[in-house]
Amino acid sequence: MSRVKDDPSGNAVDVSTLKALSFQERLAIGLRRLKAERGLSNKDLAEQLGVSEAYMSQVTRAMRDVKLSTLDKMQREWNVIIEDLLRVTEDDLSRIEALKAHRGKKKAPETTS
C-alpha cells in the first residue's frame, strides 16, 4: 500500500504520485521550487535565460518541452545541477497538487444564443 501524506490544504496525497511524474512535470516542479526559494517570477527566470515569459510560463506548467541546451543554460545561469531541478520529494507534494490544479483548469465552453 502506498503511503499517504497530508498536504498543506489538508488533502491526502498518494506518495506514489511522485514516481508517476514525467520529466516535464518534474522540471516544472523543480522550477516552482527554485522560484519560491529565490523569490523569482517567470519573468525573472525568462530574462535570465533570454527566453520569453510565455515560454517560461509553459515550462513551469509542464506544457512545453525544453531543449538540452536550455537545460544546460539553466544549470549555468542559476548555479544548480539539473538533477536538483528534476528531483521531486514529499516536500514537493503541494507543488504537485498546484501543478495538477493549474493544468486541470480549462476554459468554459462558449455558448451561442
Description:
- Residues 31-85 form the HTH cro/C1-type domain.
- InterPro entries: Cro/C1-type_HTH, Lambda_DNA-bd_dom_sf.
- It holds the Pfam family HTH_26.
- The chain is mainly α and 113 residues long.
- The chain has a domain at 22-91: lambda repressor-like DNA-binding domains (434 Repressor (Amino-terminal Domain)).
- 53% of the residues lie in helices and 5% in strands.
- It is built from six helices and two strands, in the order ββαααααα.
- The protein has helices spanning 23-38, 42-49, 53-60, 68-78, 82-86, 93-104, and strands at residues 4-6, 12-14.
- A two-stranded antiparallel sheet has the order 1-2.
- Helix 2 (42-49) packs across helix 3 (53-60).
- The radius of gyration is 16 Å and the shape is globular.
Task: Provide the fold topology.
Blueprint: E1 4-6, E2 12-14, H1 23-38, H2 42-49, H3 53-60, H4 68-78, H5 82-86, H6 93-104
Antiparallel strand pairs: 1-2
Helix pairs in contact: 2-3
